[in-house]
Amino acid sequence: MKTFFWIMSMVFSFSLSNFSIQEFDYKAAWEKVAELRNNGLPKSALEVVKNIFDAAKQENNYVQLTKSVKVTTELWIETDEQGFERSVIFLEEQKNTLPSPSKQIIASYLAEMYNQYFQSHRYEISQISTVSDPAQNDYKTWDSQKYHQKISELYQFSLLGEKLDLPAESIVELLAEEKNYDRLIRPTVYSILWDRVHNYLKEMMGQVNLSLESQYVIKDPAFLGDFKKFVEINLSQTTKEDPVYIILKGYQNILTSLSQSNQRTKADYDLSRLQFVFQNCVIHNKDSLYESALTNMTEIYKTDEYVTLVYLALANHVLQNNKPARAMELCKKGMVIYPESPGSVACKNLISQIEKKEASMTTEQVFLSSEAPKFALDYKNLNSVKFVIYRLEKNARINPYSEPKQSYQNLKKGCVQVYSKLWQLPEGKPYETSKLEGVWSKLSMGTYLVEMTEPGNNTNNGLLNYAIFHVSDLAYTAFHDKNMVTYRVVNRASGKPVNEAVITLYQIEYDGSRNMDESKKIQEKRTDAKGLASFSYIENTRIQVVVQKNKDILALRNDSYFYKRYYQEQEYSYAEVFTDRSIYRPGQTLYFKSIALKTDGRNKHEVVKDIPLEVSLFDANYQKVSTTTLTTNNFGSVAGSFVIPVGGLTGQYHLSIQSKKGISAQKYFRIEEYKRPTFEIKIDTFTQSYRLNNEVKVSGDVLNYAGNPLDGAEVEYKVVRGVRYIDWGWWWRPGPSYDNSERVIIFGKTKSDQKGVFNFNFLAVPNENIPEKDQPIFDFRIEITVKDITGETHTAETVVSVGYKALILKTGLEESLDVKTLKPFRIEATNLLGLPQKSKGNITIEKMKEPDRLIRNSYWDDQGRTFYSQELKEKGISIPKSPVISYSEWKVEKQVFSGKFDSEVSVDATSIMQAGVYKMTTTAKDIFGMETTGISFIR
After folding, report:
1. What single DSSP character describes residue 5?
2. Which burial class, exposed, middle or buried, applies to 105 when counting CB atoms under 10 A from its CB (0-12, 13-18, 19+)?
3. Rounded to whole angstroms, how far apart are CA atoms 902 and 699?
4. Would the N or C end of the chain have less CB density within 10 A of its end CB?
């Protein structure tokens, strides 16, 4: 709102040379208002503002009129508890009575006030049920939809009327002085008001509950053409509330109204229009169209320095498409044309970002002593790096309270340097990140720090990155039991237990005098033949574990914290309570049962016999209604009943179980005044497949429980579209990262006929942002609400699934089978509703080639990485790649079967499938003639 007040203050400072009557000294009056407000006299200030308002109204001075109205509401809100409500009423009146352009500015201000109230009370408003006819003047009763409708209407009203083309010279000058080129020069009152409408609608996009049929979808490539073609597009209006439609219509109006001489403002609106369309359109080649449109703009607006901002937008676009060299070229071209423009400064900053030298190094935490340490390197704009490795002391620690680079410098003090080498990096594509993998020399067992620096760079000693790693053949795990923690030490390569390994626990405490962590040895034990050693649990202690076997010392730097343990392993008693239902009416009988138990705190439970239990009934105000005492039987249980009192409170009641031996329990339930439902809704089951973009027929009936039809009942319906992807089995890949949110397709009303039957149709519209190749399945959830003449209301819902293809093929085999249990199987063919379909097609079975050896996970993504040294590669030092996690990525070894299948006849593959992994591919046509493929992997 501050932005609006600032803008209006600029508007209100316009020169009054166009007005012939100057009978009132507005400057002196406003100075008096400011003085009174500063002295804490708002009511006196209101009197002066009233005089200003009266004078401005008599002189028809729209600047002073609007300012006096705005300040009046400010003072009311500051001084009156009902100031906001009073201001809303006042502004509604002035909006309808003041002349233009005052009433348009007031309407815009009122819209912002409503929006501010909505944002401040968003949660409370979200709890308000949608009603068909909310109180028009009582904004406290409005739901979210009504707020958007009202705010949108006010903003649109602010763009209609006379005198909106009045100049806003003072605003132009101020913006130019501040060089605020994100909100470029706005030459008229209309342009200022339009920006406010635009900003609000962009915030509301996606939050407005419109049916899909009422939403404007940008599909025509002409929207990404030049502005001359854009303004000629005939926008077929769907609804006045659609933000996309309103914004596009606004761009057309404002681009049409601007004169040829105002190139800078037109360029700004034109660029804003293209960016909005690009972000919200559904056009398959929108990237190339957008780039072409921006390129065209660089020619259209080349006579104005604003063109550098167009070059910047174009450069950012190609940079996002991984074309940094092209982005550099565009930035430099813009800077040459207008080197002193603000856009040129922004282009220079983007160039610096593209040219920035970057490097990151990834290593594993622990390496075996038999292998050279490996690393992955990502770098950009670097020709060489230098690696230096230091051997650290056993208990060297980083100060967690200092800066990382300072900690690193302190850590390596006094450490022995064991490796140093300058690496010339392979030249990659200009300004793009290159990736490689490499190895250092073999190192003896111990803990090491590796630093990576840029040669010749003296800033922070040229440090690019550093890491700490260990060389050890040991590994350990820990698990907790009771008040003990047990460590298991194994050989890192073979996994065999390590006997006689020494495990030492160090307590880590912060030394404030030295501003460092200090370690103190607290326990030490040796592992047994199983590699196990147990320690007593020390609560609320920070621990470092050091494992040693001969010269092999593993001192990982990931400290653990022994928190206080709150579980109890002592004998105690408790009770379980059950009631015959969860909701009762007043006057009904509540039947209950309770079982008393005792436990040792672990896994042993026993019933408690012959113990008195006091059972009490409490109402919604936690007042005791009734009580009884019962004794548990040989099975530890008691049973009884209470009559719910008539005329008492409704709401949440509860039963309370208490005994002198410490047994207690509670059970909550509800008491409500309700009546039996008199009718039910039955939605007819879908039995056929549907195609996308075709109509789906929905029907059902409303019957009372006697079986008679309910005639003339109001039926409200809503169809909501969701999306999912076919799951072919355990090799399934994650669904594509598109907008998978639910959208309302249609909503409406109808009535049941004499037979109680209702029906309606809807169009099965797909989400066109999701390509057909990803085989999405769209689930259309149909929600039905029926109300009879007495106001009794019930709901029902069902789902119909529609896709680009109407058939799903699966083998029905388990993912992993024993060869001996393999039997003939059938191909399962179903439609998207899960109903069996008769189907015939082709099937092929292929044996997959398994990897030569099992490979563990790499610590880094190896995609696109090159091996640094061919010499090391020839010596047999290899870097393991990530193991194949999907059978779909394995190569085919051979085809073992190809033939026809019939969904009603079994396929016998028992003689051709031995141990191994097989890929089964089935193809068939659905009822619409579309070919469908199903893939399964069987091991």
Report:
1. H
2. buried
3. 34
4. N
Q: Which positions ≥6 away from 423 have C-beta within 8 Å?
A: 384, 385, 386, 387, 438, 868
Task: List beta partners, residue 855.
Answer: none
- In whole angstroms, how far apart are CA 115 and each of 6, 112, 121, 196, 198? 18, 5, 10, 12, 14
pLDDT at site 15: 35
- Under DSSP, the state recorded for 901 is E
What's residue 170's pLDDT?
Answer: 41
Q: Which residues contact 477 (CB under 8 A, 6 or more apart)?
A: 487, 488
- The per-residue pLDDT for 261 is 66
Give kind and range of the element (H or E) at residue 591. Answer: strand 589-599
Question: Which amino acid is residue 794, in one-letter code?
Answer: H
pLDDT of residue 396: 54
| Separation of alpha carbons 243 and 214, rounded Å | 11
Q: Locate 377 and state its tokens.
A: 């390197």
* DSSP structure class, residue 696: E
Backbone φ and ψ for 477, nearest 5 degrees, come out as -130, 165
**In Å, how far are 300, 310, 600, 936 from 333, measured between CA atoms?**
15, 11, 80, 54
- Tell me if 625 sits within 8 A of 619, measured CB to CB: yes
pLDDT of residue 728: 44
Calpha distance 194→188 (Å, rounded): 10
Query: How many other C-beta atoms can be found within 10 angstroms of the C-beta atom of residue 686?
Result: 21
Q: pLDDT below 70 — which residues of the chain? A: 1-23, 127-137, 167-184, 206-215, 237-241, 260-261, 394-408, 410, 460, 482, 514-516, 559, 561-570, 601-603, 726-740, 819, 851-858, 862-864, 867-886
CB atoms within 10 A of CB 638: 23
Supply the pTM of this predicted model: 0.66
- E strands, 411-569, where? 416-424, 434-439, 446-453, 463-471, 474-481, 484-491, 502-511, 516-526, 532-536, 541-549, 552-554, 560-562
HSE-CB at 801 with a 13 A cutoff on CA atoms is 17
Task: Report the candidate in 306, 337, 331, 304 with the shortest Cα–Cα distance to residue 181.
Answer: 306
Angle among Cα 714, 720, 725 to the nearest 5 degrees reads 150
Q: Round to the nearest angstrom and report the end-to-end CA distance of the chain.
A: 64
CB atoms closer than 10 angstroms to residue 177: 8
Strand-strand pairing, 484-491 and 532-536? antiparallel
Q: Name the nearest CA neighbour of 113 among 141, 147, 157.
A: 147
Q: What does the alpha-carbon distance between residue 696 and residue 694 come to, in Å, rounded to a whole number?
A: 7
SS3 512: coil
CB of 489 closer than 8 Å to CB of 527: yes
Which value, to the nearest 10 degrees, does the dihedral of the CA atoms of residues 199, 203, 207, 213 take?
A: 40
Rg (CA), the chain: 38
Token output for 753:
């006929």
Question: DSSP secondary-structure letter at 837?
Answer: -
Which is nearest to 887 in space by CA: 842, 926, 918? 918
Handedness of CA 900, 903, 904, 910 (dihedral sign): positive
